[in-house]
Amino acid sequence: MPSQDPSHAESLQDQYEIRPDPVALTHNEQDPSQNAESGVDYEPYPEKSIPISPAHEKIVKAITSLYSGSASKEDMEVYAHDAIYDDPWSYCDTRYKIAGQWYGIPKIMASSKTLATEIVADSPTEIIYKQKQEYKPRPLYVSKAVNSLVTLTLDGEGKVRYHKDMWNEKDYSHSGLGKVMKELNGDHLTKITRPPEDL
Question: What is the pTM of this model?
Answer without folding.
Answer: 0.89
